[in-house]
Amino acid sequence: MAQQDTDQQHAGVLPVDDEGFVIDSEDCEEREQAYRERGTSRPITVVGNPVLHKECKDVTEFDDELQQLVDDMFASQRTAEGVGLAANQIGVDLKVFVYDCPDDEGVRHVGVVCNPKLVELPADRRRLDDSNEGCLSVPTAYAPLARPDYAEVTGQDEKGNPIKVRGTGYFARCLQHETDHLYGYLYIDRLSKRERKDALRQMAENEPRYPVVAND
């Protein structure tokens, strides 16, 4: 079956492919624009803010308030010129992230995941990519970080429907990075002490290009 039966779909739910993964690469410009035009851009929380360093709460209410949060997240992501954004990056303690990210083939992916969980890959599918990684919550800093070049995430969409998302290359990195955020981990937490110190030095020496919330 190429996509879910239309009668079973709720408004805004993405279709799925024959393996049950969302088709998030169609109508990307229109969908992303609709989200962010309904939303209000918020400043980005940065490393050191307590909300970034603890596991977020599960999303249990799939209501208008959640939809407004999602819209604001897309608006904030666009302002910051990011490819993914977790709710705690705008100070909200909920397990939801949005993405607008290309894969290594240049295919654009746009979507929303609530209560994400990374699927553990068997050893024979774990090919590591040690490309540079950055984070809107560690502005202007970058460091190489080895992650699997393929990722699968299960969760729910903003209407509460179960979904599966998969990605390769840069998009796989995005899915892992944003899921990490919602469990209290920044990418710099996965670096060596020396590399983490260097990333924080880069952040301290440069000015972010988007509004951030200063840590008191």
UniProtKB/TrEMBL annotation:
- Say yes or no: keyword Phosphoprotein present: no
The GO terms describing molecular function are: peptide deformylase activity
Q: Does the keyword Hydrolase apply?
A: yes
Gene3D superfamilies under this entry? Peptide deformylase
Provide the E.C. number(s) assigned to this enzyme.
Answer: 3.5.1.88
Q: How is the cofactor bound?
A: Binds 1 Fe(2+) ion.
- Its domain of life reads Bacteria
Pfam families xrefs: Pep_deformylase
Q: Which UniProt keywords apply?
A: Hydrolase, Iron, Metal-binding, Protein biosynthesis
- Catalytic EC class: hydrolase
**Could you tell me which PANTHER family the record lists for this protein?**
PEPTIDE DEFORMYLASE (PTHR10458), PEPTIDE DEFORMYLASE, MITOCHONDRIAL (PTHR10458:SF2)
What exactly does this protein do? Removes the formyl group from the N-terminal Met of newly synthesized proteins. Requires at least a dipeptide for an efficient rate of reaction. N-terminal L-methionine is a prerequisite for activity but the enzyme has broad specificity at other positions.
Q: How is this protein named in the record?
A: Peptide deformylase
